[in-house]
Design brief:
By secondary structure, the protein is α+β, with helices and mostly antiparallel strands. It has helices spanning 9-28, 104-110, 115-132, 137-142, 144-159, 178-231, 234-243, 261-267, and strands spanning 29-32, 36-42, 45-51, 54-57, 63-69, 73-82, 88-99, 164-176. Strands 3-2-5 form a three-stranded antiparallel sheet, with helices on one face. Strands 6-7-8 form a three-stranded antiparallel sheet.
């Protein structure tokens, strides 16, 4: 049997050297994607050095660069809580947040890569409960913008010390218990009935005012007429003549009244 050729030690050495050179070159540099920062670790220890976007160099075999995403992220949570008047509320909020680029080394060292579940989500749940507990169920509806701003302030106080910046917060939904919904429906119905009654009362008051105005007008007309008759009594004789049909009454209980034509002529304009 023929024996296998012995390995060439020179060739093996060249291959090893080439692999070492490639590994060295590969381990010397790297890139940080847009919107990220690179936390430099040396033998597992956070050095405090942070690499910006683009190409970077490091000590091969000793340094490691961990990428941290500093772009704005959105997280949505739903939690059950109680209002100031002890109504059960199911609140859904959406938070936009990001890591502060100059503090990513602290975040990595103190919290780690799981900061979302370790810090952000618990802070959101606690902030929602703390904010809603300061308002009644009705105020949560009528003062929604104020409630939203209060939630954002509470979250900012909890997240900023950890190197997490709160961008915006939105209340996606607030759902109330059956008892509160029934109370709201009853209140709306009562307000509508009260408004209808107020409109009816206003209509009646207007009609009454119209009657009073008409009565005042008639009274004023009668007063003016009375004053006119008092100043010119012959007007009564003129009106009687206008109504007379030219026939004297056949039966009278007294003397037949006579009208002085001269006075009527004098009364005419």
């Amino acid at each position: 049997m023929s024996r296998a050729p012995a390995p060439n030690p020179v060739l093996a050495g060249i291959v090893i050297v080439v692999l070492l050179v490639v590994a060295f070159i590969w381990g010397v540099w790297g890139t940080v994607p847009a919107g990220h920062r690179g936390v430099v670790l040396r033998l597992g220890r956070v050095t405090g050095v942070v690499k910006g976007e683009g190409l970077y160099f490091k000590v091969p075999f000793l340094d490691k660069v961990c990428l941290m995403d500093c772009r704005i992220r959105k997280e949505e949570v739903t939690t059950e809580c109680s209002s100031k008047d002890l109504q059960i509320i199911n609140a859904t909020i959406a938070l936009n947040f990001r890591l502060e680029a100059n503090r990513v080394a602290d975040v990595y060292q103190n919290i780690g890569m799981s900061y979302l579940h370790t810090v952000v989500i618990p802070a959101m749940q606690e902030g929602v409960k703390a904010a809603i507990a300061q308002y009644t169920a009705e105020e949560l509806v009528t003062r929604r913008e104020e409630v939203r701003e209060r939630m954002r302030e509470l979250l900012s106080k909890r997240l900023t010390p950890n190197g997490i910046y709160t961008e915006t917060l939105n209340i996606m939904n607030l759902s109330f218990g059956v008892a509160f919904n029934q109370a709201i429906e009853a209140k709306v119905t009562a307000e509508q009935n009260a408004l209808a009654a107020k409109n009816i009362l206003a209509q009646r008051q207007y009609e009454a005012q119209q009657l009073v105005a008409m009565a005042k007008g008639k009274a004023e007309a009668m007063r003016i007429e009375a004053e006119s008759l008092a100043q010119n009594p012959s007007i009564l004789q003129l009106r009687a003549l206008e109504r007379w049909d030219g026939h004297l009454p056949r039966v009278t209980s007294g003397a037949i009244p006579f009208i002085d034509v001269n006075t009527l002529s004098a009364a005419e304009p």
